[in-house]
Amino acid sequence: MSSRVACFVISIIFLLSYFIFYPTVFEQNDDVIMKLIANGYFTGQPESHLVFINIIVGFILKFLYIHISGIEWYSVMHISLIITVFFSNLYCITRYETDTKRLFLTIINLSLLYFFSRLQFSYTSGFLAISAVILQIYGLTHDNRKLLAFSILLMLLSSLIRFEMFFFTYPILFITFLFHLRKKLSLKVGIIGGILIMGAFLINQLNYKNNQDWKNYYDYNKARGSVTNNLNINLNDKHLVQDLKLNAEDRFLLQNYVFTENFTVEKLKKLTAYSKENHTSMGSSINFIYSYVTAYSIAITVFLLISLITRRYRIAAAILLHIAMILITVRYANMVQYRILYPTLFCLVFLYLKSLNTNKSKSLSVFLTASLSIFLLFQVRDVRKTTFFADRAQDNIRKIEKQLPKNKIYLVDPTSNYYLIGRSAFENPDRKFVFFGWLTNFPANKKTYSDYNSNLYRMPNHPLIISKANYNKLKPFIFNKEIYIIDDNNLISLISKR
Questions:
Q1: Closest Cα partner for 284 from 340, 347, 231?
Q2: Fewer CB within 10 Å, N side or C side of the chain?
Q3: Residue 486 host element (H or E)
């Protein structure tokens, strides 16, 4: 079972089995929106500006959508990159590891397939960075220059998919695991990768800054994101309200992710600057980070203790640096989300298992193989649940769309868009929707609608879609003449105002 051929066969069987039995699904709305930007749903033609993803990737996707239409290239890209990570790791395992260690490292590598059920650009970026680290460890140890060259490509791809994700993963692991391995060569690899990454980053920045429409959007969206993702802003503070001249409508709608025209880039920056003077406590930061990832919190804590007890001090140091970076950024910038956690944990577990001398202990090998196999079974169970909920959501969306008249363009309330954004990687909306949130002030929308307003409730001549609960809550601030309300049974009722 631990032969090279067996490990490859097991991996291919599991990979094919996933695509035969389960759909590929995005975890959240961000990727769905970027897919719809790339394939031309919003603009009428493929678009290269994907906001969170480097413009170089956008150019490639735009070219593919234009010249080889009919394929959902954005989704294909993410699937292909995860498969690349999967087989890159597997190549190192089967070539350089022996006996039972080869088997249980193959099993832990199979856990990557789980993320086909929750594709997300941050995960893709994170696992590319992690795979680059794994390739470099094997490449530096065994003097495999081709492996090192390929790892640099993975570093670049990671930064192109999401620069922040690369920044929060690779440097910590480079410091703790790579720098001591053949220092000159590891430093050379890091420098070459760093130069390529910074070059790509500058290309992206210059492209946005040299296009005035996208520069305005980029500045606004960056400022908007700094506000919506910030724990430290108290919108009821008297000094803040007076300084920025915020009325009750401004503050109430902002709490519901709707930005009135009163919020300029300058005011949004002031809101962020104000928050920096009111840092949350360390306890609040920890609670915020791990409130939705209890299992992860337990796992990383136990793993830290095990690493210290078994004297795997590099692992322990990497965990402590990982936690420290998250705490600092959440407390002062609040840029980190839970998706950063899993790629790092995967890498640390992989490297911990790699460090064990299991070939001399059959009982330990059997225990690890059994434990990891049980873990895979839990992943399969979770994938089945994800599939069930994704299919149900898609059915509900189709039910809602059938009730909406054709040949209309609908504004979608930001707090209700989950009713209409399906997460299937290969399906698109049947009706034409205008989404807000981080698409607020999207250049194509501002050009299309002469009466465009960052507050969609102030676009009275355009139909609005909103959930019943949100309509009842926001009713005093809604001035659209045609309102489609979704109830708890996904039935639509129309309200017309004069």
A1: 231
A2: C
A3: strand 482-486
